[in-house]
Design a protein that fits this description.
2 domains; membrane; 4 strands; transmembrane helix; elongated; mainly alpha; four-stranded mixed sheet; transmembrane; 60% helix
Length: 428
């Protein structure tokens, strides 16, 4: 323990500790959903933030591993009474402690922040633990590279290659083999549980690679094959093969089957229902959708109940209800929930994709209707081409717009809304 404390006090890893914390925290915070406190999002952000802190730790571990070569001190290790593996073990333990402490520190900070505002759910401790194991693997591989190639260029090269590999792997996210990487930005959904079999398989895969790297390091430092390192490597290869098979057999399915949701609903007419994890946004969403209902009441777009659902069409609202998607509780996203609802009932948006070139004027006209329903005309500020239509549309009043909307609903859904309907001539 005395030797470990001495190593820790004199290691560059301790000086880098605040930098590693800052890197991990900065990226994790960036990946948190705005204005929300959801455990699943917090866990995903924590695990994915190794994209930035991982290369730093890998380069730091490689730098520590090259210290012996830089100081020409290999003879001290060879003649030490504690054995040739004692000093490398202390160095490795130091960098692992710094990596683990930085990860846990950020996890605690974000966990407290989430706990203060979360309305449902709990942290996924298995997934958080696997993320920590992945960071230990990154440190171990970085240290091994430094020992195998003890050159001054090794640490920056290891850090750069790590970052490029992680970035390349993220571009292929969702493929079965992408989940074998220690850094994965995994898709999450509050409507589907995580595939814990895949996550556990990842954890075993990482542990096996750590053991394999340790075995290789022991053989290199001792200068020949030894029974214990060899057996460790054989066992690690067996576990790695089995765990990799588990991960690959999931075919990239990080999410499980949809869960039945006990919605939190408003007591208004229409009824607005959202996932409990977004419960704090119910009052504001209720106001937004009640405003929409006042505009479409008595028209074919009228509704009695809307439910928050993902954009996955495999999940459908209950009979008689409509759907909307909501990404966060920011004002922009809550306002955008109306646009998501309009997409779902075929009023412009995605329903008219592919027809814009042939019906450019109609597309622009339908966007005016969507802007009115969304209560957001900002996109038309400074649009001289839309002034005449907007002026006429404004003058007919709310009751007139509702009646006009009902008369022209079929044309709107068909993405064929002509200019003359904004003069009162085309819908007589």
């Amino acid at each position: 323990m005395i030797a470990f404390r001495h190593e820790l006090r004199h290691s560059v890893a301790l000086l880098a500790f605040p930098i590693v914390i800052f890197a991990h925290c900065a990226l994790a915070v960036q990946w948190l959903w705005p204005s929300t406190n959801i455990w699943l999002n917090m866990t995903s952000a924590m695990v994915g933030a190794s994209m930035l802190s991982g290369p730093l730790i890998a380069g730091l571990a490689a730098w520590i591993a090259t210290r012996e070569h830089r100081r020409n001190a290999a003879y001290l290790r060879m003649g030490a009474a504690r054995g040739v593996l004692a000093a490398p073990a202390l160095e490795w333990a130091t960098i692992v402690l710094v990596a683990a402490a930085s990860y846990v520190t950020v996890a605690v900070v974000l966990g407290v922040k989430t706990a203060l505002g979360a309305t449902a759910g709990a942290p996924n401790l298995v997934w958080l633990s696997v993320g920590l194991i992945a960071l230990v693997l990154i440190a171990t591989v970085g240290y091994l590279c430094g020992r195998l190639f003890p050159r001054v260029w090794t640490p920056p090269t290891v850090a750069l290659i790590s970052y490029l590999y992680f970035a390349w792997n993220l571009r292929h996210a969702g493929t079965p083999w992408s989940y074998l990487s220690p850094v994965t930005m995994q898709q999450v959904s509050i409507f589907r549980p995580m595939n814990n079999l895949l996550i556990v398989g990842q954890g075993l895969w990482y542990l096996a690679l750590i053991a394999l790297a340790a075995g290789i390091l022991a053989i290199v430092l001792k200068g020949g094959l030894r029974t214990a390192p060899l057996l460790t490597m054989i066992a690690a290869l067996i576990v790695a093969s089995v765990s990799a098979g588990v991960v690959l057999r999931q075919h990239g399915r990080i999410l499980g089957e949809p869960e039945k949701i006990a919605y939190r609903c408003s007591r208004t007419t229409p009824q607005i229902c959202i996932h409990p994890a977004f419960g704090d946004g119910l009052p504001r969403l209720t106001t937004i959708f009640v405003e929409l209902h006042e505009k479409v009441q008595g028209t074919p777009a009228d509704f009695v109940r809307v439910e928050q659902l993902p954009r996955d069409v495999a999940m459908q609202p209950r009979p008689g209800a409509n759907r909307f998607a909501l990404d966060s509780l920011s004002e922009a996203d809550m306002r955008g929930a109306v646009s998501e609802y309009l997409d779902g009932i075929g009023i412009g948006g995605f329903a008219c994709v592919g027809r814009q070139a042939a019906n450019g004027s109609s597309f622009a006209n339908i966007e005016i209707v969507r802007a009115w329903l969304s209560n957001d005309m900002r996109q038309f500020f400074g649009d001289d081409a839309a002034v005449a239509r907007l002026t006429w549309f404004t003058k007919i009043g709310e009751a007139g717009r509702r009646a006009w909307f009902a008369r022209n609903y079929a044309s709107i859904q068909a993405c064929r809304l002509s200019d003359n309907v904004f003069t009162g001539e085309g819908d007589r």
